[in-house]
Structures are given as structure tokens and as C-alpha cells.
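Q: How would the C-alpha cells look for this protein?
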Amino acid sequence: LISPHCDLCGNEGKKVQISPPGDVRIALSGDLKLLRETLRENFGDEELISKKVVLLNGVSYEDRMDEVIIDGEVVGNFRFNGSFEFLPRIPGATWMRASKGIVEVDEGALEPILRGANVMARGVLSAKGVRRNQEVIVKCSGRVIATGRALKDEDDLESGVFVKTRHKGIFGRKRPERDPSLKDVIRANLTRLEELEREAIEFIRRVSRKFSLPVTVSYSGGKDSLVTLALVDQALEDYSILFVDTGLEFPETVEHVRRISELFEKPLLSASSDLFWKALEKLGPPSVNRRWCCKLCKLAPLSKLIKENFSSSLSFIGQRKYESRVRYLSGRVWKNFWMGNQISASPVQNWNALEIWLYIFWKNLPYNPLYDLGYERIGCWMCPASDLADFELLRRTHPELHEKWFSWLRKYAERAGKNERWVSEGLWRYEGNERKERKSGCFDRILEERIHSSPPEQILEALRPLGEVSRSSSHLVLKRGNSRALIFPESGRILVHGENSPELLQLILSAIRRFEECLGCSLCASHCRRDAIKFTPELRITSECSHCGKCLEVCPLIFYSSD
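A: Here is the predicted structure in C-alpha cell form.
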């Protein structure tokens, strides 16, 4: 149930104790396949999940781990720890018909174990086939009394701890004989689903009236944007669908987006990017803390797409507060720092994943087939926010994409002096955003730096966003606030003095680098209110520039540069 009341029987439901934040989702065919394989491998039984509506609740762990919920009980944890494994809890172990991974203990061990003790080797009667580090079920006289991890092999029973117990107890609840279908679950929650739908449609109409902008739906191919699209379609008649092919989308996603646009019979405005592999050589692999890929490959093309078609727009986005702390704090209407021409709003901001999935099945919405391959989230196939479990799935479902990315990572690691763990354990995902400080000589408050020689016209244009630049026969003069800089193009010498000379020097170096190494993402042009930035195809900054410097603030090359 997604509310206390059951529409089927009229009774109040029982609250299931799960770990926060409680973003429960329905296990789809891919999840169930992985679960069945793991249960069969670990315990020789897969009947635990047979004919059941299985729910998964993501919990905090170093990789993917879900609480598995069946018949109102958390029956165990399903996690990736180099391989997929199932950690049964007492209800799951009791309901399971396990034929493997069983440790039988004598009667004398019963009370100590129930009070919290580990399983000692001398109290073990049998442990057929058990291996060290295996998840096991502990039984006494045929009854489940504990679960945990074996610390020894089956033949090492002389002394010491044999099983480090994790869960202890005797579970007496009989398993329900009835197996509710997904249709039953929807009928039991229909009132709440109708309330969610009604509130979301009212929100969409209210926000649309407030801003009076062209309406778009940013469609990623994921479940949340699918529900958002369906809600907008009911609320409004006039809107367009936006999609950005980052060059890193799964082929299934690209095809799914095409089919969805045909189904909803709305204009599909799409943009694509080929910058990722080019930018890799300059910026290195993206990480959780340095997600330059999102800015270059997604937001920049999207901003350009909006500018070319609408100037600015109100975009409804499938963002939910359960996804991250940043999204939790953003509210339902916001403006992205990187997207100056877009106001964003999320009608599903407060929905949890279970509500999203129930709505999809209620409305029979065609979702991305990747979900049925076991993927929890849909995005770029090499996203640094992915778990190692996701990359294991990628290896299984799209081996050519997996090899393409990890081959590049291995070559990069060799060049950068990184060890094999950096690649195999996904440490590249956590590289920081450390910025190396350039050393400058400082004499009487004058900072000096040298760059390679460049044509004066090129340097003048590069520095235009920082302020007025005048030119003499031998040098350029830049004034910004109370600071001043002299640039000698022929020798590459730069002299800066004034109250904010360190900041100005860094701005100058960044502006020149941005001009010379521009990747052509055009995010800066989308933020320029004077339309002073052109791509012909090289970056050009015209005399219309007002020197606000906004284009430098949003340049991913500068923002994520580490040298």
C-alpha cells in the first residue's frame, strides 16, 4: 500500500519497517531474473519469490543493495559485492525451502544464539557444502534460528567462530496462501493514485499559467520523465518533447524515445552531442564530483535547443526528491545555474518510486525495456554515478559498450600512473575536483605569468568578457575594477597589479585557455544576453560583449579544469 487505507478490503494496512529514505520500487523481470539466479546459486531455492509481487528498497551500502520485501516482510537483502548475493533475514530464511547453505547446530547452542551469540564450530552438527564467506541459514532441530556469514569451511569444526550471526530469532508467521497480482495492488491503491494524479495535473496547469512560457517536457527515457510526460499530456494541449542524445545513450533508449513521441503525437525536438570522447582527452574521466559530461553533453545541447526553438521555456522534468539531497532541497520549481533560458518544474517531486511504477502500470505506459534487463536507473551507460552492479549488468547486456569504456580507462590509468584497482574497483568515479594553483612571481603587489605567444587580435577577443581591452603597439591593457593587466602577446608575458590581482590573473589565464581549447559545446552562447558569442565554427566574441563574464562562469572547460 502507498497509503494507510486499502481500497480492496477497506481495512488499514500494516506498516512495514524498512530503511530510509524508503524509495521502494517494484522488482521487474530483470530484477527477478537476477534474484532467482542468486537464490538458486546461494541456497538452491527460488520459490521464495515465485508468483509474488516483489518490492525492492535501496539502502545505504558501498554498492547496490536492496531490501527485498515480500508479503509484508523484509525477507532479506540483495546486494552486489563483486557478485550478486542474497543475505536472508529470519522471515525469508523461514519461508525459503533451502537445500544449500544450511548450518545445523545442536540444542545446546539454541539459547546462546537467540541471545545474540555467534555460532561456535564445536556446536555445529552439519554444514554440508558450506564455504568460508558464504551466506548461510542456521537451524536447530530443523527450525531457522539465525542467519549470517560463515567464517570457515565445512570441514573446519575444531574451534573458533563458525558463523558470524547477523539476524537471530524464530519467526512464527505463516506465509499467506494468496498471491496478489499487480492488478490487485493497483486496485488496492486506486484512491491514492487518483489523488496523486489530480494534484500533479493541477500543479502543471498552475505553473503554466504563472510563467506563460512555451511548455516542454524534458524526456530522458526513464520512468520518472515518462510519468511526467503522461501527466503533462493530460493537463495541457500545447507542448513539445525535448530529448538530448548525449552520444552515451543506450540504443534501447534512443529507440524508446522515438516510439514515445509517436505515441503521444507531439513534436520531438532533439539534439545530439559528440563531445564526450573529445573532452576526455582534456578533462580526464568524469567522476561523481566532476560530472562535466552532464554539462557538455546534455545541458549545453539542451540549452541551445531551447534557444533555437523558443528563446526560453518552462520545462517539466521528472525529478524526485528521493534521488539525492540536492534534488530534495531544490523544491518543485527551480532554475538551473547552467540553464539560463529554462525554468524547470517537477510534478512528481514528492512521489516515491513505488508510486511512479504503480502509475505506469495503472495507465499501461510503455516503459524503457532496459528496466526489464535489471537496470534501476536509465541514463548514460558509463555514468560515474553508476554502481559497480550497473557496470556488471552493462558487461552482460552490452559487452561492446562495456569494453569500449573500460578499454579507455585502462589506457588512461597506464598513462596517469593509476593501478588496476583504480579501474576494476571503480575508483575513477570518486576523483576529486582538485585544482592546481599556478605559481606566480609577486613583486611589490605585481603578479607575473607567462603564456605562449599569440596574435594580439586573438588575445584581445579572448579577454573581452573580462572588461575593456585597449591596444598599443607592443601590448594590451585590460582594466577590471581596481585591477589592471598588461599583456605582451609577442613574448607571452602577463603583468597584473591591483587589489584583486590574483583573481584577475586567474581569470585571464582561464579566458585565454577557454578561447584556445574551446570544445564547441555552446553553453556560453546560451547564457549571453547580448548574443555576442558566435561559432563559425570557431568561437568568436564580438564587440557586442558587455564584459559581464557570465560566459566564463558556465564554461565546463574552465569549471572542471584541474590544471
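Residues 433-444 have pLDDT under 50 and may be disordered.

The chain has three domains: 24-168, 189-383, 441-559.

Upvote if useful.
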